Amino acid sequence: SRMTEAQDVLKNIQRKPGLQIWTISKMKMVPVPEQAHGNFFEGDCYIILNVSNSTSQSTDIHYWIGNTSSQDEQGAAAIYVTQLDKYLGGSPVQYREVQGCESAKFKSYFKNGLIYKKGGAGSGFTHVETNTFNIQRLLHVKGTKHVTAREVEVSWSSFNLGDIFLLDLGKAIIQWNGPQSNRQEKLKAVLLAQDIRDRERGGRAQIGVIEGGQEEASPELMKLMISVLGQRTGHLKESIPDDKPDQNQTSIIKLYQYEHCNLGQLLVQEVATSPLTQDLLSSSDCYILDQGGSSVMVWKGKAASDEERSSALSRAVGFIKAKNYPSNTKVEVMSEGGESAMFKHLFKSWKEKGQTQGLGRTHSVGKIAKVDQVKFDVMELHAQPKLAAQERMVDDASGHIQVWRIENLELKEVNPSTFGQFYGGDCYLVLYTYNRANKQQYILYMWQGRHATQDEVTACAYQAVNLDNKYNGAPTQVRVVMGKEPRHFLAIFKGRLIIFEGGTGRPGVVNPDPGARLFQVRGTHEMNTKATEVPGRASSLNTNDVFLLKTHQNVFLWYGKGCSGDEREMGKAVADLLSEQDKQIVMEGQEPAAFWVALGGKAPYATDKRLEKEVAPHEPRLFECSNQTGRFLMTEVADFTQDDLDEDDVMLLDTWEEIFLWIGNSANQYETQESYNSAVEYLKTHPAGRDPGTPITTVKQGHEPPTFTGWFNAWDAHKWSGGLSYEEMKSKLGCYLVFIFFLTLSLFQEYLTDAEFENLFGCTRNNFQRLPKWRQNDLKKKAGLF
């Protein structure tokens, strides 16, 4: 039976890091050689196993369905995937991939692109054999981030003005760039051509490039193209718009529970809509998570029945049919404990097994444990870039600070004696200067008061641009929402950060008398402490914190039962900044009458013993923000590396606690502006109900702080000076003389059909070979090949 065959095949599969690919041929799994990875026959189905190099060795199984593959092959692939998943212990995440609609994760395995080949293994075609040169095909190349190349008819009718085409003749590969294609697309196509040369031809093929808008500049290459394609008649087609990536995240997602009823039918019941919480998932059940039809995910509880677990993939496909979703809808299947990063991102919070709530975060990377908050050792940041990124600290906060307030829409320098005092009716710019690798680095914080006027907020943004220009675009810009100040911002003010709810810090301006003022003090040392003004009512109190109550007559320092000795010490230090009067210490539960009178009487307040809000360990996500196709799109990049940062674009990095906008040196103004708007919209519409006040930080290429670079493995600070541009790559390839010499060899004749040969030389191949050598050379000269 097929099940037994599957088990026999699986015995030989090893769980080793890297990529393993099989095609389904005559209903059996047949390994695809490594040099053919990235080539997919449209008539076949494939199974792809990827084991990551990380310590966790996370495993993903994809099954790829070609557009012209048979139902039988698709069914066989699905059975093999289920068996492979079981063989590997049920921990892999399974993905169903449909040609042309592959997931970002799948595409990330093939950095140089996917090639769709006509036919299939069953039609007698074979996978790539290295050093085979008897080839003539035309590849239609599309995409900048995820490149796909599809075999099309070898004819001028296949061309258009907006895309790139590779005419692959075995020993020669000619890249023809549509006049409307952009630089990034051209570079990606060159990389694909090099990949074909190196992987499939053992490095023994020449590559030439023709700019479609300047064909006259490459006469020799054009002659070769014409000899294969014939003379071009009529105009080329207009460019075809790129398929719109699935950039609109669906903010409404639904969670369904499914189970079998006695009649063998599937019972699907809606459980909840977004935002989802992890406690909705029960280990004894299986669930379908529907992202508004853009993708369907299945979660298998550990204690669910074998039947429910083994039929998960087929249930997802059945669900898609029942909902009338497109047949190419993405499907992911995962087991409890082996959830994909994308799945976790759809939940408000996610806690890993064995992870305990804690007072603060331990500095053992990525784990949260029950530890006391200790002063953070910044030296660890340089030794462990990932830690710097997680802690969002660029240095030990010992750099130089300058602060300006927006007054009459202009910048007014703030007196250093009042540094750290921020009023809700004002906007401020804070420039922080520090040294890294003997080079000055800058962070420009834009703090916007909740009660500042719209004109002041606009002026703040405008003045930030001016300051940025003054420093040649080097500062990293961070938007700070009042009350959501990032950790580094707290640290640079050394325990002196006080946020006043309203009013202004302008000299000579008398703020309205608020009567009693209440400040909540949080922090255990000068690097993480701030005081925030809260409404002067008893309901604002919290048993876990220190509060300062300032009236015309008294200053009370109130200690909640849940606060630590360190928190009390910091409370005293902040109280001395706010008032020189003697402080009256008040213990919770022993308040004098005057205390309650100042707050307008007793009232219920938060008395639960709180453990510090835990930050869920969400995986970072990278998006490309580009309008190179003519309209603004956001495309996700899976398993990203520094190489994925395109100089022509703006990239959005979502680390959950912070959003980074990385501005490439060649990104245009529209992309930069639209990216910021998109980042705000991205937070608003995120299915997990994200905090719209999440900091958005702008980072310029070449001036990346460690809080950004730490999210990338093996960041190379010198990369930008050493990378090759498209023009440099093209000139390196453009050894046309080698090409022309190569074409004079008799080998070129094997490329041409009899009709093409006659078209080029004006006589048949047989007649040509009968001619004397001098006459052959004469005809070659006329054809422009000598």
UniProtKB/TrEMBL annotation:
Record's GO cellular component terms: actin cytoskeleton; cytoplasm
Gene Ontology MF annotations: actin filament binding; phosphatidylinositol-4,5-bisphosphate binding
InterPro entries, sorted: ADF-H/Gelsolin-like_dom_sf (IPR029006), Gelsolin-like_dom (IPR007123), Gelsolin-like_dom_sf (IPR036180), Villin/Gelsolin (IPR007122), Villin_headpiece (IPR003128), Villin_headpiece_dom_sf (IPR036886)
Subcellular location: Cytoplasm, Cytoskeleton
Name of protein: Villin like
Similarity-based family: Belongs to the villin/gelsolin family.
Gene Ontology biological process terms in this record: actin filament severing; actin polymerization or depolymerization; barbed-end actin filament capping
Native organism taxonomy: Eukaryota, Metazoa, Chordata, Craniata, Vertebrata
Keywords from the named record: Actin capping, Actin-binding, Calcium, Cytoplasm, Cytoskeleton, Repeat
Domain HP: 718-786
Source species of the chain: Cyprinus carpio carpio
Gene3D superfamilies, A to Z: Severin, Villin headpiece domain
Main localization (coarse): cytoplasm
Highest taxon above the source species: Eukaryota
